[in-house]
Specification:
Two copies of one chain form a homodimer. Chain A has 516 residues and is of the alpha/beta class. Chain A folds into two domains: 18-250 and 465-474, Aldehyde Dehydrogenase, Chain A, domain 1; 256-437, Aldehyde Dehydrogenase, Chain A, domain 2 (3-Layer(aba) Sandwich), CATH 3.40.309. The first copy, chain A, contains 16 helices and 21 strands. The first copy, chain A, has helices at 25-42, 47-63, 65-76, 82-103, 153-161, 174-190, 206-214, 227-239, 260-279, 298-312, 322-336, 366-371, 373-376, 393-402, 415-420, 422-429; strands at residues 4-5, 20-21, 110-112, 126-132, 136-139, 165-168, 198-201, 220-224, 246-249, 256-258, 291-295, 317-318, 342-346, 356-357, 360-365, 384-390, 406-412, 432-437, 476-482, 503-505, 508-510. The radius of gyration of chain A is 25 Å and the shape is globular. In chain A, 58% of the residues are buried. At the A-B interface, β3, β4, α8, α15 and α16 of A face β3, β4, α8, α15 and α16 of B.
Chain lengths: 516, 516
Amino acid sequence: MSPTFQSQNARTGEILPGEFHEATPHQIDAALRAAVDAFRTFRQTSADKRAQFLERIAAGVEAVAEDLIELADQETALGRPRLPGELARACNGARMFAAMVREGSWVDARIDTALPDRKPAPKPDIRLMHRPVGPVVVFGASNFPFAISVIGSDTVAALAVGCPVVVKAHPAHPHTCERLAAIVKDAARESGLPDGVFTMVHGRSHEVGTALVAHPATEAVAFTGSLRGGRALFDVASKRERPVPVYAEMGSLNPVFLLPRALVARGEQIAEGFVASLTLGTGQFCTNPAMVLAPHGASLDFFLSEAGRRVAAVAPASMLHRGIHQAYEQGVNRIQALQDVLVTARAAGADQSKCQASAVLFETDSETYFKHPEVLREEVFGPSSVVLRCTGQADMIRFAESMDGSLSATLHGTPEDLAEFSELIEVLQTKVGRLVINGYPTGLEVCPSLHHGGPYPATTHSHFTSIGLSAFLRFVRPLCFQDVPEMLLPEELRDSNPRGIWRLVNGVRTQSAVAS
Amino acid sequence: MSPTFQSQNARTGEILPGEFHEATPHQIDAALRAAVDAFRTFRQTSADKRAQFLERIAAGVEAVAEDLIELADQETALGRPRLPGELARACNGARMFAAMVREGSWVDARIDTALPDRKPAPKPDIRLMHRPVGPVVVFGASNFPFAISVIGSDTVAALAVGCPVVVKAHPAHPHTCERLAAIVKDAARESGLPDGVFTMVHGRSHEVGTALVAHPATEAVAFTGSLRGGRALFDVASKRERPVPVYAEMGSLNPVFLLPRALVARGEQIAEGFVASLTLGTGQFCTNPAMVLAPHGASLDFFLSEAGRRVAAVAPASMLHRGIHQAYEQGVNRIQALQDVLVTARAAGADQSKCQASAVLFETDSETYFKHPEVLREEVFGPSSVVLRCTGQADMIRFAESMDGSLSATLHGTPEDLAEFSELIEVLQTKVGRLVINGYPTGLEVCPSLHHGGPYPATTHSHFTSIGLSAFLRFVRPLCFQDVPEMLLPEELRDSNPRGIWRLVNGVRTQSAVAS
C-alpha cells in the first residue's frame, strides 16, 4: 500500500475523516495511458460535444454548490463571500470556454489557396488551424479550490480544445478535489466521452509531481503555486529526453506606485483600497500587492498612518494550511530582521495554533531595498507589504529596472502625475504582464483581454496566460495542411466554412466561404 | 587577441582571404548591452519606421544581389538557381513582415470596456496587445545563407515587432554574413535607429553560442540546425537563473507514405518527384524526405528501380562544409552497416576531397526498422533516404505511432487510398507540423498558413513556427492594460482605432472604433 494522508480543518487543525493515497507509479502510468487512449477519440469530438461536456461540469458543480462551498471552507478557511464567488467564477469559466468552442474561431483558421499556374513554381493550397497537443497534467493551486484547481481554468481550457487532463489534486483540499473530480467524471460519462479524458491523482510527495511531469505521454503541464515548486517541475520537464512545456504561474511582488499628486489628493482613499487589496482572502493571492513605492514626505507619512491604522485593525484569519502559515511567518521575520526596516503596523491577536496570520505593513527607504534586494524582492505569500520611501522618479525607475518580472504593476496618479512619470510607466511595461492605473492588482476580470502572466519568475513563459480566454493557447499547436483534399480537411478549413467562423483567407479576415 | 578562423570555398576547399575573430565575452556583453539600450527606443518606434527599416534591408540586399550570390556560392556551393531564389525569398520575407507591421492587426488587440455599474463589483476597462519581448539572439543556419541567416525569417520577424537582434553568424559562410550585416546596419542608420538594434558576432566555438544564450539580457533565442546543437542551447537556456525560450528547429525524418493505388497508378511519376525532392540542394533541407514507407510487392519494386535509376544518375555535388559532409558519410555508413538493409542505388563519382556527397537510396523492411530504430530514426542530413517495405496499414500505423515528432509527413494516394488509410492519417496528425498530400515536403510556401514546426525533436516548442507570417509570435508577449487612460494607451488600443486594425471589442471582431 502506498502512504496515505489526511486533510485538516484549516481553522481548527482538526483532522477530517477519510484518507487519501499517494498515487503509485503504476497509477500515474495508468492515468496517462488512459489519457493517450482517450485522446484518439477526444481530439476528434465535435465542438458541440465538448461544449456540452463543459456545461455539464458547470451545472454539476452548481447543483451541489452549497455542499462544495462548505467542504472547501473547512479545508481552506476562505469563507464567504469568497468561496461562492470563486465557485461562480469557475462555472463561468467553464461556460466561457464552452461558448468559445461553439463559436469556433479559436482555431485561428488560415487558408491560402493554390495558384497552379504561378511561375516559376505552382503555389500549393495551404491551410492551418490549431489542434490539441495531447494529454495535459494540471497541478491544482492551494489558494483557489474552485477556480485554479480540479475544475479551474487550466482544466477547462485543456478540455475545451480536446486535450485529456490528469489533475494532481492539491493535498490541502483533497476532499473538495474528490467531490469536484466525481462531477467531472459524471459529466464525461453523460457526454459519452471515454473515462481517460479526465483522471485525478493525489499526492503530497515531490515524487508524484515529478512522475507526472516526467511521464513520456505528458505533452504539457499547467501549474500555479510557489516559485520553488514551479521551477522544480520546469527543471524536470526541461531535462526529459523529449522536453515539454511547463506553464507555471508562480506569483510576484505586484508593486504599487503612488505618484505625488494622487498621494496628496487621495492618500486616505488609496490607503483604504490598498489595505483591502492586501488583506483580501488573508493576502493569499498571486496578485497581492507586496510592495509600495512612494515619494517620501508628509503625504506618505499620512498614507502610512492611514494604511497602518487599517492594517492594525484587520482581524486575524487562518491561512490555507500549515505550510503556508509557516512560510508567511518566516517571510515576515526575515523582513523584520533587516536593519532600517520598521514595522509600521501589525494586526494583533493571531492564534498561531489555528495558523492565523497577522497582517503587517513595513516601511523602509529605497536605499535599504538596494542593500537587501535578495530579501525584499522575494514574495511573502500573505497579508504583508513593504512601503519604500523613494526620492523621486529616478529612484522608482531604478527599482523598476532592477525588479524581477511581475504579474502586474499598479500606479495611482492624476493625469499630471501619469504624464510626468511616463518614463517609469514605459519601464514597467517591460517587466509586467498587466498594468493597472488607479486600481488594485487583486480581483481578475476574466475576459478575452485579460492576461495573467508576465516575465519570469511571474511565469515560466511570458507569451501565455493561465487565466482568461487565451489560456487555451498553451494546449494547442498549429497543424498545416498542404494540398489536402476537401473531404480530409477538418470542417473549420473546408471551402464552404460550414461553421461560419472567422478565418484569414488569402490574407483577408472573413467569415465567408472560399470563392471557387 | 581572440582566436581567428577563415572561410573556405565549399567546392574546392581553398581558403578564402580574410579572417574572423571569435567573439570575446566582452564583445558578446557589449552586443547585448547595446541591444538593451536600443530596445528602449526601438520598442516605441512607429510601425512605419520599422516597416521602412525592413524594406531598406530588402532593397539593400537586392542592390548587390549578384555580389551576394557569388559570395554565398563560394562559401556554400548551393549554386544557381537556388541562391537567387533564396535571396528573393529572404527579401520577400522582409517585405512580408513590413506589410504585416504596416497593416497592424498582428498585435491581436482586444478591448473589453468598463461596466462601472455592474453588481456585485464594477467591471474595469481591460485592453490587451502584443508587445516585443526584448533582445533576441539569432543563430544563422548553414543551409540557408539568405533565408535562415543574417537577414532570415528569425531576424526580420524579431525586428518587425520591435526586438533588437544579435546574430551569431554561421562560421561556414562568414563573408556572406558580413556583407549582409553591413546592409542591415546601413538600413538601421538610414532609418534613424540606434546601432544596437542589430549586432552580429562570429564564432565557431560552443563558448560563443553558450555565452549569447546565457547572457542575462537575452530574452529569446532562435536557432535552426542540428538536434545536438539546438538541444545544447535549449539546455543552457533552461538552466539559467531566469530561463528563456530557445526556439530551435532541428530537422526531422519527414516520412513519405506511398499508398497502394497511387503506387500502382503513378509509381514512375512519384519516383521522379521524390528523387528531385530528395536531392534538391544536395539534400540539405530540414524537410528532406529521409524515409519512405510503402506496401511491399511488384509496384514497390518498380518504384525502387525507377527511383534507384534516378538516384544513381545524380551528379555528385559539394556539401555546405566539411563537417556536414563528414556527418553525412558517417550517417550513411551507419545505415549501410545494418544487417538486412540494402543499398538500392548510390550515385558514383563523388570527390571526397571536395566534400562531395553521393546520393543514396536504401531499402529494408519495417521489421528491420523496429530492430534498429535508434539508427534508422536519426536524420541523415543530405541526399539519403531509406525505403521501408510495409505489410499494410497496421504496419504503417505502428511506425507512425512510434516515430519522433517531424516537421512534415507526406502521403501519395488516390481518393480511395486516402479514405482507406484515414486512421494512418489521423495518427500522423498527432506527430507532425505539416501534412502534405500528393506533393513533396521540400519547398516551403511562405504565407500566413504555413507552419514550419512540429513536436520535439522537430522543434523545441510545437506552438511556434520559424518560417511564415506567424514566426513573429516567438518574439512577443501580451501586455494587459487595466483602466489605463486613453492618452497612455498605444494607438492600437485607443477607442478611435486610428490605425483601423482588426480588434476583438467586447467579444466581437471588428475594425470599427469603440462606441462611446
